[in-house]
Amino acid sequence: MEGGGGNLSELYSSSKRLSLKIRDALERLERLEFTSASSSSLSSSSAVVAGSSDDQSTLIRRDIHQIQSLCAEMDRLWRSIPSKPQRDLWKRKVEQVSEEAESFRASLDKYTSRHQKRVQEAQERAELFRRPSGDAHVLRIFDEESQAAESVRRSSRLLEDSFATGVAILSKYSEQRDHLKRAQRKALDVLNTLGLSNSLLRLIERRNRFDKWIKYAGMTVTIIIVVMFWRWTR
């Protein structure tokens, strides 16, 4: 166990030294990237910076591979430690170094991608400058794209105006429908009122006729009674 622990300690120390070295190298790469962006207009400076960054990237990638190899060896060794607490401790240490190496690799990949993109853009700019009609070609492309974008915007505005007009028409139809419904209800109310008034008038007219017959009958009976009383008293 002591031999294994000693080997693990040496490998772990080596991996930590490599991690510090890689971290410093990545920081230098970032400074080179800033320098490259600042001096992108100078072709000679850009070429020197590009060559230096490529060399740095190669060295960093080699050191990352070395750390990963050390992690594989440490992973094999910590599994052979009999003591579980020591085994768990070394497991966490190895996992930490492995995760750190993976982080370095991801950072380097991102830098490489950005660097390749900058190189490609620089080549495209140089090619455009070499072309006699490069500016006219670029302007024509921009003009066509601008016209297409303007056409899309006009179509979008027309669609929005048509939609707004349709919404307004539907709103007017809805208002007119509500007005017609209210007018219909008022007409029905008036008709119902007129129907009730006609029925009431007919009832009053019949009652007047009945009262008139009662009045005439009463007058006739009264006259008959008076005549009969007059004859009886003679």
Main pleated-sheet profile: none
Q: Any low-confidence stretches, pLDDT <50, length ≥5?
A: 1-5, 40-45
- By CATH reckoning, the class of the largest domain would read Mainly Alpha
Provide the number of structural domains: 2
Q: Percent of residues in beta strands?
A: under 5%
CATH fold-level name of the largest domain:
Methane Monooxygenase Hydroxylase, Chain G, domain 1
Average of pLDDT: 76
Helix content: over 70%
The CATH architecture of the largest domain is Up-down Bundle
Structural class: mainly alpha
Radius of gyration: 53 Å
- Element-by-element helix/strand order: HHHH
Quantity of strands, as a count? 0
Transmembrane segments: 213-232
Membrane topology: Single-pass type IV membrane protein
InterPro entries: GOSR2/Membrin/Bos1 (IPR027027)
Pfam families: V-SNARE_C
Defining key terms:
transport; GOSR2/Membrin/Bos1; Membrin; Methane Monooxygenase Hydroxylase, Chain G, domain 1; protein transport; 234 residues; mainly alpha; 2 domains
Written account of the structure:
There is one protein chain. The protein has 234 residues and is mainly alpha-helical. It folds into two domains: 2-132, Up-down Bundle (Methane Monooxygenase Hydroxylase, Chain G, domain 1), CATH 1.20.58; 177-234. Helix content is 94%, strand content 0%. It contains four helices and no strands. The protein has helices spanning 2-38, 43-78, 84-130, 134-233. Helix 1 (2-38) packs parallel to helix 3. The longest helix has 100 residues, at 134-233. It is elongated, with a radius of gyration of 53 Å. It starts with a helix and ends with a helix. The chain crosses the membrane at residues 213-232. It is found in: Golgi apparatus membrane. It comes from Salvia divinorum (Maria pastora).
